[in-house]
Amino acid sequence: MSINQLKALSGEEKKFFDANGYLLVRGVLNKEEIEDIKDHFTKLHAKGEIPGCFKAATPEEAGGDILKQYPRMMHPHKVDEKAKNYMLHSEVMNVLHDIFEEEALAAQSMFYFKPPGARGQALHQDNFFLKVEPGTCVAAWMAIDDADEENGGLVIVPETNDAELQCAKPSGRKDIFAYAMEVEVPEGAQPMPVNMKAGDVLFFNGNLIHGSYPNESKDRFRRALIGHYCGSSTLKIGNHYRPLYMADGTVVDRELNQDAGPCGGEFIEMGAH
């Protein structure tokens, strides 16, 4: 793709993403959008349950696990028009167009509250679960609160965008979600925190190794709206990520990839990025 065909990125930003597997774009969401998202998802959570999306436990049912009281919302775009509109945010879709070098298709949305005391997310690779073929998926991680090492911000391993997909192994850690299963960091690579301000969006390759810290703050939520996307030339994708959506909301589909999910087997619910 020539620099004249880029919709949102500069040539240098495109080169950076291709080389490192991630790109932090500042201020994609404005203050009004951030407050709207906070308010809207707080109201959705107050319902207690939306079948197929989330079910919040009472404090008694949670047994001290705050993530059970504030579970992630899975595929809210399938049950809520506003969630779908934010998944298809025009600036996000334009950046994705430049990354994929073709039109992007939305495959998944998730919303995380990550309240104080919540565990982190084990190191993993998103395309192990989506199994986009050919190529890989790309995540757009939209910060709704400031996110840093104290309140459970993201950690990435730069330049692992070309790494082979790994089956996670037991880590023995108790401060992470998702069965304490992690992928291994390649020799010579180093995890790196990504500190973000509310409204920033981190785009990263589906093979990039990443996870998050536990939220060790006393009173700071670390809310995030996350979308996963693939290019329009995608032929296969896992069943949990169908159908797909064009930027204008048109529904399309692709062939089912039977290998989607951990180790080609049972789908394991991952925890909070």
From TrEMBL:
It comes from the Bacteria. Keywords: Dioxygenase, Oxidoreductase. SUPFAM superfamilies: Clavaminate synthase-like. The keyword Oxidoreductase applies. GO terms for molecular function: dioxygenase activity. Coiled coil: none annotated. Pfam families: PhyH (PF05721). The keyword Oxidoreductase applies. PANTHER family: ECTOINE DIOXYGENASE (PTHR20883:SF48), PHYTANOYL-COA DIOXYGENASE DOMAIN CONTAINING 1 (PTHR20883). This is Phytanoyl-CoA dioxygenase family protein. It comes from Lederbergia graminis. The lineage of its organism: Bacteria, Bacillati, Bacillota, Bacilli, Bacillales.
